[in-house]
Amino acid sequence: MAKPNDEARFKVMHLLPNALTTCALCAGFVSIALSIQGIYDAAAQSIFIAMIADGLDGRVARLTETTSAFGKQYDSLSDMVSFGVAPAVMLLTGPFAQWGHLGWSISFIYAAFAAIRLAKFNITDTVHADFIGLPSPSAAALVASILWVLTGHPLTQASSVALGVLALFLGSLMVSPVIYPSFKCFDFRKRYTKFLICLFIVVCAAVVINPPYVLAGLFAIYVLWGPIWMGVKACAR
After folding, report:
1. What is the CATH number of the domain that holds 129?
2. 113: nearest Cα among 167, 50, 73, 77
3. Number of structural domains, the chain?
4. Per-residue pLDDT tens for 178-205?
5. Nearest Cα residue to 20 out of 99, 101, 64, 178
6. Cα–Cα distance measured from residue 63 to residue 220, given in angstroms and rounded to the nearest whole number
């Protein structure tokens, strides 16, 4: 018979992943509210907070063996708000503000492709080490970091057009068959683990020095990695 303390501990462990998902959802909601007010640096930071919480909830659920169908669906809905709607609102209220219905259309396409990406993720086997299509958090992170870089600078027509092209490019990558590494199945017992840990420390230090530029560079590399690697493999055949 389970002791009362064990039952209380199990309930807490079961609630913890969903609490982290709620934090991610809250951060996405805050990002939308801040974008409407034109505070894009804080809106971008909120998306990164949502990414951290989103990255933790699944791992905590697996570690505590409290994964559930409810948690999977709740996480997907939270991701739609934080990584689909939030970056689309950032684009719509910022660089696309003067574009009228064209800006609405591009922002909607981005959000719709993010929804399709998340739906595909839910119905596919997620045990593999790779993602099929660009993950929506990575796409949102690139949009958020670039708008964070542009905060305080006058938005030119050229930069707005570039962001429009980028939004469509990221949307198409989310629903594409391009393969991206997930890092979920990383084996910490491998020989190069120490090197990667040192590299991670260096990257963290660089992020602290200049968060928007470093994050924009890192996620740009990740976004381009899939098409480039796919092209390399195609040429090698």
Report:
1. 1.20.120.1760
2. 167
3. 1
4. 999 876 655 555 655 677 778 778 888 8
5. 64
6. 31
Q: Do the Cβ atoms of 103 and 92 come closer than 8 Å?
A: yes
Q: What angle do CA 34, 36, 41 make, to 5 degrees?
A: 40
How many residues in total does the chain contain? 237
Q: Which domain holds residue 56?
A: 4-236
Residue 79 Cα to chain centre, angstroms: 8
What's the rounded Cα separation, in Å, for the pair 16 and 22? Answer: 10
Q: Could you tell me the pLDDT band of residue 70, with boundaries at 50, 70 and 90? A: confident
User: CB neighbours (10 Å) of residue 69?
Assistant: 7
Amino acid identity, position 172: S
**Model-level pTM?**
0.88
Crossing angle between the packed helical segments 136-150 and 211-236, to the nearest 10 degrees? 130
Burial class of residue 75 in the structure, from the number of CB atoms within 10 Å of its CB (0-12 exposed, 13-18 middle, 19+ buried):
buried
